[in-house]
């Protein structure tokens, strides 16, 4: 792999810095991490105890101190702002410490994240009551507005827990990379921006933080600074800018047509708008869909995620792409949903728009799922495979969102499925990336066919990988099972209540789940089972801090898997209730849902069997080494005509130029510098691998050289044009 | 040159640092004493001015003096020859004179506010040039004058070290810099066409010397192109003026405005030709797209401080004059009846897109910035072409926005040229680690150009889009978005190259910029203004909206 070579070079150049990884637990960082980790465990336990039982009310009744605290938590409105600012300010403090020592900086990083987590958790009471609105007017023209409901809360808590774990993990990993201060600074900015995005109370605030996130995460994607990173980064940033502009356009249209930017249900207002409403929502979905890795615009994702440093790719895949999904969910459920008071039931005319939109989104989701999984099966690079799986799992989430919109009043199942899957995917995908990171640190190899037998060398990593793999494939008892069965119910409901064609979608769903199973059998089998290559006989196990981070997330995966109802009851159902869904439907189907019923379990057995069959067949006929031809690639298909036109245009221009050069060479010998650059460009661009943006830039520069510069150089032409123009005007009018 | 002791030569920085400490003795104690002294003086003068009769009479003289605009106009013209005289003695004193002159002008402009807060202030110098000079200052003019003097102050501070290291013939430079300042002030305040024309001519002749300052072949060529086209433009404005005068027998804009509707009924063709020539002349001077070809060479070959003012303010004067003539002299009825908004917006759109596209192909950073100016002029023109108050407010907002962003970008480009001697953007690898402050300022200004929310450029795009949509032109909004994307395509690679690519000769290790503070401070101020106004755009927007109601 080219990327690994590039990284290898980094390591060698790293050595003089004198940084070597010592697996000491008793340094300041290790102690701090253990303390923070145990505190978080205790806090989560306490949180669950407070929310799931009625200990909380007893405590407040009996102890006045606790009552004061809870009163404060219920009345202090600036919490969202504090939670967002902590990482931003913390980032600067971290950078300052970073100039002193790595350990001190990482202690600061972990503590900042921990404080932010506490602040986020402290918002729970108000978010539950639905009263947390905070506005800063007189800033940025429209004012910033924050509104934390249970949906935002769910996202923020997931983000914070995951972030803390990844920060604990990244200490050891990042010692291998350069520019660590920069990395942590942008990490913190991204964190703050993500919190801002999910807590935003209007589309303007959301857009602001969304853009900050795009740009700061760019620095994470192209952190390694070698060629592949930079080109993946270009892909990422240009798509990101495009997405941002399309959201901006949608926002301007929205503002002019409805005169508000807030997230309030406004289907009745939208109902009168005609076609414009589809433009608005389409622009939003396109913009957020780019970040979410939705089917036709996912091209940046499989490039960007593998090249980022592992902690960053864990967070990119774990959280960042979910922000896109969250954006779609938030925008559609606000703008295409009516108020409870405006509608009479499921068949109300106000639902018609969301029905049309939802059907489209479901199919987009299905296509994303299928494409992601089939491309993932072809990958040999572990991180690339995981990135394609992220695309595929985003397909599940988008499909869930589609059902949530398509079924309108009865869409609560799709809604909770997609939110649940957002949480679950964040957990297991980051564990999987972390596993890949550990393997990479020990072997500097990511090609799974060249690895094997590591379960003896690093048993803990193997267990974590197994748990996460079982989670992503949907084994009962692990978290993926819960969300996948809700999503499965949702798609079944889509054809029960809606169009019969979704029967086909349900079949696709099963096949794709089987594909997922197969590719994780492949991953686990090739990396951890089998025979260990001689090269890696002497490698060590994992790192303690990294193991601790993975262990924490693994515990969460198993915990959610064993008690799936806790999250559903405490986070997701309250979130669904804050949106215009039929409360009776929620009470009947979602509250105290029985996950471990025989029908769903047997369904999973079939999925696993099918997956195993695909695996065996694939190995036997070498199907996993198939590579799709170049022309099947999405970017190739989409941009082919434009690419070809540009190619032809630049060719035509350069050939003309070369002839011109030959002439001018006879005349003037000195003009060779420009010629050189022209010919260079010409040679550069002849092969097909040049990206569309690059080709565009090349064509433009040739165009400028050939016409604009020449035109400017020949003053005579200019003056004659201007003078004849003036004369012509004089003649015409006099 | 005697004044080398305060110039830091990049090669022997350490030595000069040591020597500067021993020479200047600016330790913490003396800085502290200075600050205390300044505070004491301020308090005493404040007390005297506000509480004694003598003080209050001085205050009235300054604040309500009808002669202040005259002083503002004359100061640069007096300072120009003086600066040459002093410049022969000592370069430092010359620069001190310039900066102080501009600072005093800035204060005088500020003191005008009481007069124009709720109205306008007219100044007439009768019997000069046959027809007399008429000036009028209203809130818009005041705002632009403030911007101009702020910008000039910044570039003069910036120029001190930059010019010393990079360029020759500094006396000449400061002379023409000062004259240009006077020309800009005059052209902004002008209330009759003749005065406007007079100051236009002063401006472009003095700008010629700024453009061709290097005296290299290419600079002279660019200067030639600049001056010939300027003459063509000037003649066409003159023709148009005389046509208007023939029918209305006045040069004063307000009077023309009241006479034109009647003339329009009888002499449509006459007025139409006048409008066409006026716009042609102003289009050449403000580099509207098909007539932009003089700009990239001219702005990129000028010394950096003057590139900043040429792009930042001189172009805007012509654009503001377009607003003045179109909306106050010719009037909305005539404009809409000849379908002028359509023509202007079409030109604007083409300019926006083509300017950005041509900028993508550039390798020289200053040339790229100059092409970007062509595109940005398109934005302002779009706002004007909408012919609504919203559009005009957006255009004026963008004038300020662009002045801030583009001067910050030019200052950064100058700092790179100063420290590294590089102009080719392909050679900027890892420069973000050598000149972190410069490149952070560059990034802020470039992000503002692209339109990242929270920065001033975003708000001006937002206002422009709202204005376009409320006059039912969604196509324009899409064009603005495309142009923003193209902006991203040429600004982002520079930032990425600077921060993420490794230089062959140097590891990416963070060090401080080796650029003198007099160059760092102006660009940091510009960048922080971009952020501050980006966060509180309504301060500026409310001012502009109120100013527009008083403008007609």
Largest beta-sheet characterization of chain A: 2 strands, antiparallel
The pLDDT mean of chain A sits at 80
How many angstroms separate the termini of chain A? 73 Å
What's the rounded overall pLDDT mean of chain B?
Answer: 85
- Structural class label of chain A: mainly alpha
State the helix count of chain B.
24
Features:
heterodimer, A: mainly alpha, 2 domains, 2 strands, disordered N terminus, B: 552 residues, mainly alpha, two-stranded antiparallel sheet, 24 helices
Structure notes:
The complex is a heterodimer of chains A (734) and B (552). In chain A, 75% of the residues lie in helices and 1% in strands. Chain A has 734 residues and is mainly α. Chain A has helices spanning 2-14, 28-52, 55-62, 64-75, 79-98, 102-122, 124-129, 150-174, 180-199, 203-221, 227-258, 267-271, 276-292, 300-307, 310-335, 352-377, 382-406, 412-443, 459-473, 479-497, 502-528, 544-562, 564-577, 583-590, 598-620, 634-667, 672-684, 692-713, 715-733; strands at 132-136, 144-148. The N and C termini of chain A lie far apart (73 Å). The longest helix of chain A is centred in the last third of the chain and has 34 residues, at 634-667. Chain B is globular, with a radius of gyration of 24 Å. In chain B, 53% of the residues are buried. Chain B has a domain at 348-552. Chain B is an all-alpha fold. In chain B, helix 18 (389-420) runs antiparallel to helix 20 and helix 20 packs parallel to helix 23.
What order do the helices and strands come in, and which of them pair?
The complex is a heterodimer of chains A (734) and B (552).
Chain A: H1 2-14, H2 28-52, H3 55-62, H4 64-75, H5 79-98, H6 102-122, H7 124-129, E1 132-136, E2 144-148, H8 150-174, H9 180-199, H10 203-221, H11 227-258, H12 267-271, H13 276-292, H14 300-307, H15 310-335, H16 352-377, H17 382-406, H18 412-443, H19 459-473, H20 479-497, H21 502-528, H22 544-562, H23 564-577, H24 583-590, H25 598-620, H26 634-667, H27 672-684, H28 692-713, H29 715-733
Antiparallel strand pairs in A: 1-2
Helix pairs in contact in A: 2-6, 2-22, 3-4, 5-6, 5-9, 6-8, 6-9, 8-9, 8-15, 8-18, 8-22, 8-23, 9-10, 9-15, 10-11, 10-15, 11-13, 11-14, 13-15, 14-15, 14-17, 15-17, 15-18, 16-17, 16-21, 17-18, 17-20, 18-19, 18-20, 18-22, 18-23, 19-21, 19-22, 20-21, 20-22, 21-25, 22-23, 26-27, 26-28
Chain B: H1 13-24, H2 28-51, H3 53-63, H4 68-89, H5 91-111, H6 113-116, E1 121-125, E2 133-137, H7 139-166, H8 170-189, H9 193-211, H10 217-248, H11 253-266, H12 268-285, H13 295-301, H14 304-330, H15 332-337, H16 340-360, H17 365-385, H18 389-420, H19 431-434, H20 436-450, H21 456-470, H22 474-500, H23 517-535, H24 537-551
Antiparallel strand pairs in B: 1-2
